[in-house]
Amino acid sequence: MQSISPDRVSARPGHWAPVACGEADPVEAEAGPIIETDRQAVARTCRLAREIAGAFFAIPVREIEQPGRAIASVCEARHVAMYLVHVVFQIPLSAMAEGFGRDRTTIAYAVRRIEDRRDDQAFDAAVERLEGLAHAVRAALNACEHGCVRGVT
Q: Is residue 82 within 8 Å of residue 93, measured between CB atoms?
């Protein structure tokens, strides 16, 4: 009989992968389990996305981080941050859950909600600009991990 574990995701981000009890997950075996350092990296990435969304929407990050429900503008900023982490930084929904202090299904709802709203041209343009910024930040961070030197481009 197959069981589904919340720790395991399929190769497609955001989808559950059935895994027989006691068997190693092929995705986990390939990439390795999320270790503490990876959890810290996910937490930093989630924080970075909250900072980007907070700055864009003029919402303090501490409001975006609140554990409960919030007013619509705060929820929108939080949902956009979740969307950026998943789409730009390619973090699986189950890993993001801890970084945002939410359930994986809540993260999935937020990502779907942003995707659905992209039919609105003005909203799509805003999200596109945020994606561009997040991609630029990701590229800069990757460059620094590979030996960037202060003041040298």
A: no
The residue extents of the domains of the chain are 1-33, 34-145
Residue 126 has phi, psi (to 5 degrees) of: -65, -45
Please answer whether residues 86 and 45 qualify as being in contact, where contact means their C-beta atoms are separated by less than 8 angstroms: no
For the record, the structure tokens of 133 come out as 């910024």
Across the strands, what pairs with 19?
A: 3
The dihedrals phi and psi of 57, each to the nearest 5 degrees, come to -90, 0
SS3 state at 101? coil
Give the pLDDT confidence of 16-43 residue by residue, as tens digits: 333 333 333 333 334 444 444 588 999 9
Span 34-145: which CATH code? 1.10.1750.10
pTM of the model: 0.71
